[in-house]
Design goal:
Archaeosine Trna-guanine Transglycosylase, Chain: A, domain 4, TIM Barrel, binds zinc ion, alpha/beta, single chain, 6-stranded parallel sheet, globular, binds guanine, 25 helices
């Protein structure tokens, strides 16, 4: 069983519950060759802290001595590894050397019998040069074998490999079929040649297509991804597990892995690495080590580099800065930059998982940033949900953020002349009533623009003006004061909750409580009732039970609602969190961190809170929090 602890878009911090205990993801599983362990499994676990490894059951089965002792003692004792052991099936050997002499049922039985925690189907490796026809036929066989493996797996978890070469349609279909089977982990297979040949744009297509077909409640493993340079990008696209044979393979060729690539020891002109393996060396002393010692030292260096990057990626997910990390990692090589740029083609899918806001500010790191889903989100919502009675607009250059603080007088003056002032930004033109929401105020751009930024500004301006029927005119600034807070109160609500909800919420005499210190809206009262509070951090509202009471009888179903099963009703009324296994249904338009109303199947309001997951996730997961609840209706006074 898999559960999500924290997410940032498609990326997630999760826990895979196995019979060997918990495996936290994103997880890197070092590959251990059962015949020669360059770094011992015990060291991998205790010293490096990798709580899982992957080894090859086909190699074990083909070696008489290993086979017998694996069957007798079990894999964990054989390898002396207390953590989670995943085994591969021989598919990679068939990719490398041709046919393998084992059948699917034999190798699945064997993996189960030696006590593997996660066994793998003998899938067919779909090569990137295969035709679509050939790929399709082989997937049929892989799916049959997966079905067979599910029947044989017993207590072992089974990994069902998504194949499909470079054909996104086939990948998605294969993934969808896999998702309908009782499979526990989904590796994305057949991608090693893409990574070896630095075909990262195709890798991105393949990952996204596979993710679209898979069920969100199962961890996704990127088979053969074990270079630190690619981890951040793959995690960003929703890969939870990785494996690395390269740490040892490269070490055998005197090659060191770094975040920006792989370097040959003989070509390196210095060694500035401070990892525990390199710390006591300079270039000369490392080169001078005896062969075996040098190989082990480099393998350890490679593992330290991987460990560090896994920690860094984890931290970035926790802090909401994985996009920035992936953007900076992808600048290490033009082919990786291609991969990053390719994510632009998938922005509409990525937007489905994009949170309403993040804790920290969004950084512009280059023109690729413009294709981030937070830009798409703002464009969509400001075109579809914003509304204004004004017919004229004026376009102003940005002088500082939030706009109200730096350009307050210009904005107020134009509004008092019935002209909507719009500030030019890379997100699009920003009306004065949306200047404080994420990511408009919470973003940092270089002061020196670039062509990408400039053309984006123009494109979005046209879109917004036509969406709202605005006519552009030259700004005339005088000193008329104008209170934009009433506009802001409505516009933020429309952006966040939609137009219909806003009409209902604001139906009545409006009163705003404004901070005396900052001038910012704190509370919104309608007909004397405090229905919304505005957060200073991201400029959005928290919905209060009083507001939800107004909405729940009038807002079209299923908008803004998470419906729970009857068993959960008393708990949620008391203000306890909503767990996934109690979710009955959910509004498909809800995005992570959106405010939601939790209701019974009869439509009774139970509590209000913040959605952590989207609909498909809430329905798929059996464990974990779906809605972080703030207030229950029974904690309210009557
Ligand atoms: N190791 C690397 N790629 C693959 C793959 O596609 N299938 C399996 N089973 N193992 C792999
Ligand atoms: Zn090092």
């Amino acid at each position: 069983m898999f559960e999500i602890i924290k997410r940032d878009g498609l990326a997630r911090i999760g826990v895979l519950h196995t019979r060997r205990g918990k495996l936290e993801t994103p997880a890197l599983l070092p590959v251990v060759n059962p015949k020669l362990a360059t770094v011992t499994p015990a060291d991998i676990y205790h010293h490096f802290g990798f709580k899982g490894l992957i080894t090859n059951s086909y190699i074990i089965r083909n070696s008489k001595g290993l086979k017998e002792s694996a069957l007798e003692k079990g894999l964990h004792e054989l390898l002396d590894f207390p953590g989670v052991i995943m085994t591969d099936s021989g598919t990679f050997q068939s990719h490398m050397y041709g046919e393998v002499e084992v059948s699917n049922d034999e190798i699945v039985d064997f993996q189960r019998d030696i006590g593997s925690d996660i066994g793998t189907v003998l899938d067919i490796f779909t090569e990137p040069y295969w035709t679509e026809e050939q790929t399709k036929d082989s997937i049929t066989v892989t799916l049959e074998r997966t079905q067979e493996a599910v029947a044989l797996k017993g207590d072992m978890m089974i990994a069902g490999v998504v194949q499909g070469s470079i054909y996104p349609g086939l990948r998605e279909d294969c993934a969808r079929s896999m998702a309908s089977m009782d499979v526990d982990v989904h590796p994305i297979g057949g991608v090693v040649p893409l990574m070896e040949q630095y075909r990262f744009r195709e890798l991105v297509d393949v990952i996204i297509a596979s993710k679209k077909g898979l069920s969100p409640d199962r961890p996704v493993h990127l088979f053969g991804a074990g270079h630190p340079m690619v981890i951040a990008l793959a995690a960003l696209l929703g890969c939870d597990m990785f494996d690395s044979a390269s740490y040892a393979k490269f070490a055998r060729d005197d090659r060191l892995m770094f975040l920006d690539g792989t370097y040959r020891l003989k070509d390196m002109q210095g060694l500035e690495c401070e990892c525990p393996a390199c710390r006591d060396h300079d270039l000369e002393s490392l080169r001078a080590l005896p062969d075996e010692k040098r190989m082990v030292t480099i393998a350890r260096h490679n593992l330290y580099e991987l460990k560090k990057e896994m920690g860094r990626v984890r931290r970035a997910i926790m802090e909401g800065s994985l996009w920035e990390l992936a953007e900076s990692r992808c600048r290490a090589h033009p082919a990786l930059l291609d991969g990053l740029r390719r994510t632009a083609d998938h922005v509409d899918h990525l937007e489905l998982f994009e949170p309403l806001s993040r804790d920290g500010a969004m950084f512009y790191t280059g023109s690729e940033t413009l294709s981030r889903p937070c830009f798409r989100r703002f464009e969509l919502r400001s075109n579809e949900r914003y509304s204004t009675d004004l017919k004229k607009c004026a376009i102003l250059d940005e002088k500082g953020k939030p706009h109200g603080r730096y350009m307050g007088q210009e904005l107020q003056s134009l509004l008092s002349q019935n002209t909507l002032p719009l500030v030019k930004t890379a997100f699009g033109p920003i009306p004065p009533d949306l200047d404080e929401i994420y990511p408009i105020a919470q973003s940092i751009f270089p002061s020196i623009g670039d062509d990408g930024m400039d053309s984006e500004i123009g494109r979005k301006e046209d879109g917004f003006l036509s969406a709202h029927g605005l006519e552009r005119q030259e700004p005339v600034i005088d000193e008329e004061p104008y209170d934009i807070n009433r506009l802001r109160a409505l516009s933020v609500s429309r952006y966040q909750f939609g137009r219909e909800a806003t009409d209902i919420l604001f139906d009545g005499p409006l009163e705003l409580v404004v901070s005396r210190k900052t001038g910012k809206i704190r509370n919104v009262l309608v007909s004397g009732e405090h229905i919304l509070s505005m957060r200073a951090s991201d400029g959005f509202y928290t919905l209060r039970v009083e507001g939800a009471m107004k909405l729940v009888d009038r807002l079209t179903e299923p908008l803004m609602r998470v419906t729970v099963v009857d068993d959960a009703i008393p708990f949620n009324k008391e203000g306890r969190n909503v767990f996934c296994n109690f979710v009955h249904d959910c509004d498909p338009d809800i995005r992570p961190n959106d405010e939601v109303m939790v209701v019974s199947k009869e439509g009774e309001l139970l509590c209000v809170g913040r959605a952590l997951l989207v609909r498909d996730e809430m329905l798929a997961f059996k464990k974990g929090v779906a809605v972080k609840v703030r207030d229950g209706t029974s904690s309210q006074k009557a």
